[in-house]
Amino acid sequence: MPLHLLKICVGVDEVAELVAWQKQRLVDLKRQGLPAELRHLTHQLPKRAAEIVAGGSLYWIIKGFVRVRQRIRRIDLLEPPERGKHCALVLDRRLVPTELQPRRPHQGWRYLDAKDAPADLDQGRRRTGLPPALLAELRQLGLL
């Protein structure tokens, strides 16, 4: 079973903002002549990196709910002199919507076991337009 990471998407209010930010980042990298890879920098190298790159994803928390995930393609250890040791989570470009899962705020990233990860959202399912908090509560009660 793959191991995942859970991270708060700071400064983003909806998935569309994350999509737009990442698209712009790729354009900027291409313009600079750098590899067009989505990378998320973090100070700590996960001790369980091998389990993560064997099929794990980064699950983004947006406005108190896990809403989307991105597959982690690899983890690069970086050591530029101005920042000290840190690593880059190299992410797949595809954002996969997930079932809403409420999460409390935390700093940094957390491990997320596959059994605890929210399921991918069925693409055929129609969106209800209900607020995320209400959807999550109805799902917890077994009504959805």
SSE-based structural type: alpha+beta
Task: Classify the helix fraction into a percent range.
Answer: 10-25%
Question: Element order, helices and strands?
Answer: EHEHEEEEEH
Q: Low-confidence parts lasting 5 or more residues at pLDDT below 50?
A: none
Number of helices: 3
Number of domains: 1
How many β-strands, per DSSP?
7
Strand percentage, roughly?
25-35%
Topology, please?
Elements: E1 3-8, H1 15-31, E2 38-42, H2 49-53, E3 57-62, E4 65-78, E5 86-91, E6 96-102, E7 109-113, H3 132-140
Parallel strand pairs: 1-3
Antiparallel strand pairs: 1-7, 2-5, 3-4, 4-5, 4-6
Give me some keywords for this one.
alpha+beta, about 140 residues, globular
Give a written overview of the molecule.
The protein has 144 residues and is of the alpha+beta class. The protein has one domain. It has helices at residues 15-31, 49-53, 132-140; strands spanning 3-8, 38-42, 57-62, 65-78, 86-91, 96-102, 109-113. Strands 1, 2, 3, 4, 5, 6 and 7 form a seven-stranded mixed sheet that branches. The longest helix is centred in the N-terminal third of the chain and has 17 residues, at 15-31. The protein starts with a strand and ends with a helix.
Concise description?
By secondary structure, this protein is an alpha+beta fold.
